[in-house]
Design goal:
By secondary structure, the protein is mainly alpha-helical. It contains seven helices and two strands; from the N terminus they run αββαααααα.
Length: about 150
């Protein structure tokens, strides 16, 4: 084991700078030396935002996961990645529909109209909409109609 004094940290970071961030896969224009808060050992060089994100994940794991899981943090993260990539029920959650409608309402009018036409909404129903709120109600109704 070696100890790296603060005065050598910048030099070490430059010597060990990867081509891209190992986590975010982005250019390392703002790099930091990452270390494990449990052991104090350096793990590598990351983008500053990757480092902050990793710290939040580790702290969250200590708070919520460690005592409720038989898995280690890396095992749980791999399982989470698999779950996010593969879990699909094809059933819309009520909050999910609300979020979808809020995103629709923020779209420009021409984009909203295009979506409503693509959803096969009746022309007279679209024409009766006076504003984004009305178009959003029509979108919600049409969406629910497509789901049944």
């Amino acid at each position: 084991m070696k100890y790296l004094p603060s005065s050598k940290l910048k030099e070490w970071r430059q010597q060990n700078l990867p081509k891209v961030c190992p986590i975010f896969k982005c250019v390392l224009n703002d790099s930091v030396v990452d270390h494990c808060h449990d052991t104090g050992m350096i793990r590598g060089v990351l983008h500053r935002q990757s480092n902050a994100w990793a710290g939040k994940i580790e702290n969250s794991w200590k708070r919520f996961g460690r005592n409720n899981s038989k898995a280690t943090l890396p095992e749980a993260l791999r399982a989470l990645a698999d779950y996010l990539e593969n879990a699909r029920t094809n059933v819309m959650h009520p909050v999910g529909l609300t979020q979808k409608c809020k995103r629709f309402k923020r779209l420009p009018k021409d984009t909203q109209l295009k979506i409503l036409f693509e959803m096969k909404c009746e022309q007279h129903d679209i024409n009766s909409c006076k504003n984004a709120g009305d178009r959003t109600v029509l979108f919600r109704t049409a969406f629910i109609g497509q789901c049944t």
